[in-house]
Design a protein that fits this description.
Two copies of one chain form a homodimer.
Chain A (H helix, E strand, L loop, with lengths): L6 E4 L7 H10 L6 E4 L2 H10 L6 E4 L11 E4 L18 H19 L5 E4 L4 H6 L7 H8 L6 E5 L4 E4 L6 H7 L2 H14 L5 E4 L14 H15 L4 E5 L1 H9 L5 E4 L2 H10 L6 E5 L5 E4 L16 H14 L4
Helix pairs in contact in A: 1-2, 3-5, 7-8
Chain lengths: 325, 325
C-alpha cells in the first residue's frame, strides 16, 4: 500500500443500517479521504435517508482523484441491478451476496495496495447464508482471503483494548479451547499488532484460580503460555483475577488485556456504552476495523441509526495505519 | 429489631486494615449511630494509626446511650488480652479467632434485635483457619448462624446491582452449578431482598447462546427458570446477552442483574473502581453488608487504607434497613 491510498469502507448489507451510517460518516467529515466499496444507487438511497443532498460520485478506479463534499463509491463489477429497490430490513439473498462481494473486492484491493485499510459496515449472517456465501461473517471471510492466517478479535474503545482467545462458542467449549497454543498465539498476535506493548492476561477462573482452589487452568495452561511469551520478548503479565484486571488496565497499568472468553472481554468494553466500541481484526496482513454492532434491520432505512461506532472504526483504522511495522 | 437499634460494625481481623478503616468511618461521620463490635484496645490502636485522638468508649451493653465524637466499642466476652500488641499484617491464630468471635457475637445480637444491621470489616481466610474457625469467610459463617438458609452474594455500587448464581468455584464447575433450582432460587432471593423489582437475567454463553448455536443452557435451564419465577410474580426478564445486559442496567432499564458466574457479575461492578463496591448478603434474616476488599495485610497499620468501600457498606446497610418488608 502507499500512504496515500484511501481507506476502503464497505457498504455492508444494503438493506441494513450500513449504508446510512456510512453516508453519515461522510456527511459529518469523519470519512474524508475514504472510498465506499459498494453499490452507488444503494449509497444514493442511504444519503437520501439521512437527508443529505450531496451527490454520490462513482469512481471507475481507486486511483481517481477523490471528490470533495461527495460520497465516492467504487462499485464492484459483480453487483446486480436493483439493489437500491430492495425492501429495508429483510433477509435477502441478493443483499447478502452483494455485501459479500463488496467485502471481497475491497479486501483484495487493500491486499493489492490500492487501499490502506478496510473498514467494514455490518453484514447479516442469515442474508449471507441465503446468498450462498459460505462464511458466517467478515472475520472468517477475510481470514480465508488472506490465506488462512491465525487471527484474533480485538474490541477496543478509548479506555480499553481487549484481545480474545475464544469468541463465538459455548462457554463450556470455550474452556476446552483455552490451550497453551491458543493463549501463546493470542499473545503473539496482540504483541505484533502494535496496539500496545504492556499486556495483561486475565485468568479464566474466579480470583485467577486462587492458587488452584477454584480451577487449575491458570497453573497448567495460562501461566506457562505467559512465560513462553515472555521468553520471546513479549511484555506479558498475569494471569490476573478477571474481575479487577480490566479496571487496572483502564487506569493505565496495562495497554492491552488478553481475555479467555467472549464475555469476560466484552462486558467491560461495552459497559460504558457500545457506541464507541470498535472491532479490530488482528493477525491479518492489513488493517481491518468495524463497528461493534450488527445490521439493526429493525431500524434500517429510517435515518435514525447511530454512526458513532463506525466513525470510531474509521478513527481506529487511521491510527492502526500509522503504527510503524 | 427496633428502628433505633444501632448498626453493628465488626472490627475485622485485628491486624488487617479493618480496625483503621472502621475508625476512619467514625472519624469522618460516616458511622454515626453505629457501634463497633470488637476489641477496645485494638480500636484504640487503630484510632492512633489514623491520627485520631477521639477516645474509645467501651459499652457494657448495646442499650447504653451512644457517645458523641467517640468510638463506641462493644467487646465480646470471649476476646483474649493482648490483641492490640499483635504485629500488623501477619496471619495469627488469636487474631483470626477474635475476628470470628466478634462476627458471631454481632450476628447473634442483630438476630436478637439488639442491632439493626451487620456491617463486617474484612476477615483473613488463613487466620481463621489458624484460629481453628471452620468457615472460609463471613458468608458461610452467617449462613450457619442463621440456620442454613440459602443466601446469595449481591455486589453493588451506585450504578449497578448484581446478584450471583455461583461464586467461588472453578468456571468449569460453575457451569455445572447453573441449574434450574439455583437460578430460580437466586431470582426468589433477589426479588425478596427489595433491592430492585425489575430484574434482568444474564445468559451464560456468548450472545445468550445465539439460539442454541453457542450453548443450550439458556434454553434448557435459564429460560425455564425465568418463566417459573415470572409465574411466581417475579418481574424477571431475559436471558440476555451477557456483554450488553450490564450496560443496559446501568442506563436504567433494569434495577438488578442476575449473573451466572462470579466474573460476569463482578467485572462490570468493579470496572469503574473497587472503592465504591459493596458486598450485600441476600437471603439472611437480617441486613448484612461489607466492603468489597480484603484485609490488605501489606498496608495494614500504616493509616493509608481507603475506607470508601466500608463507608459505602454502611450507607447500603442504612438503605437496606429502610426497605419495607
Amino acid at each position: 500500500m502507499t500512504p496515500t491510498s484511501p481507506i476502503l469502507i464497505t457498504m455492508g448489507d444494503p438493506v441494513g443500517i450500513g449504508p446510512e451510517i456510512v453516508a453519515q460518516a461522510f456527511r459529518d467529515g469523519a470519512a474524508d479521504g475514504c472510498v465506499v466499496v459498494g453499490d452507488a444507487a444503494v449509497m444514493a438511497r442511504a444519503a437520501a435517508v439521512i437527508g443529505w443532498a450531496a451527490p454520490v460520485q462513482p469512481m471507475s478506479s481507486l486511483h481517481d482523484a477523490l471528490p470533495q463534499a461527495a460520497l465516492p463509491v467504487w462499485q464492484p463489477r459483480a453487483l446486480p441491478e436493483g439493489l437500491a429497490t430492495l425492501p429495508w430490513g429483510q433477509v435477502q439473498a441478493a443483499a447478502g451476496r452483494a455485501a459479500a462481494d463488496s467485502v471481497s473486492t475491497a479486501a483484495r484491493a487493500v491486499m493489492g495496495g490500492e487501499g490502506s485499510a478496510l473498514v467494514t459496515a455490518p453484514l447479516n449472517k442469515a442474508a449471507l447464508a441465503a446468498g450462498g456465501v459460505d462464511f458466517p461473517g467478515h472475520t472468517e471471510m477475510l481470514q480465508t482471503l488472506a490465506g488462512g492466517v491465525p487471527v484474533r478479535m480485538m474490541l477496543a474503545n478509548e479506555e480499553l483494548r481487549v484481545v480474545l482467545v475464544t469468541i463465538h462458542q459455548s462457554l463450556r467449549s470455550a474452556i476446552d479451547a483455552v490451550t497453551f497454543d491458543a493463549v501463546l498465539q493470542t499473545l503473539r498476535i496482540a504483541h505484533a499488532s502494535g496496539h500496545g506493548r504492556r499486556i495483561a492476561v486475565a485468568g479464566l477462573n474466579p480470583h485467577a484460580g486462587e492458587g488452584g482452589l477454584f480451577g487449575d487452568e491458570e497453573q497448567r495452561i495460562i501461566g506457562p503460555a505467559i512465560a513462553a511469551a515472555r521468553d520471546e520478548g513479549i511484555d506479558a503479565h498475569g494471569p490476573f483475577a478477571p474481575d479487577t484486571v480490566f479496571m487496572r488496565a483502564r487506569r493505565g497499568e496495562f495497554e492491552l488485556v488478553v481475555a479467555m472468553t467472549h464475555d469476560h472481554g466484552l462486558i467491560p468494553v461495552k459497559y460504558l456504552g457500545v457506541e464507541q466500541g470498535v472491532n479490530v481484526t488482528l493477525g491479518l496482513p492489513f488493517v481491518r476495523t468495524s463497528p461493534d454492532h450488527g445490521t439493526a434491520f429493525d431500524i434500517a432505512g429510517q435515518g435514525v441509526a447511530d454512526a458513532s461506532s463506525l466513525k470510531a472504526a474509521i478513527r481506529w483504522a487511521r491510527r492502526a495505519i500509522a503504527i510503524p511495522r
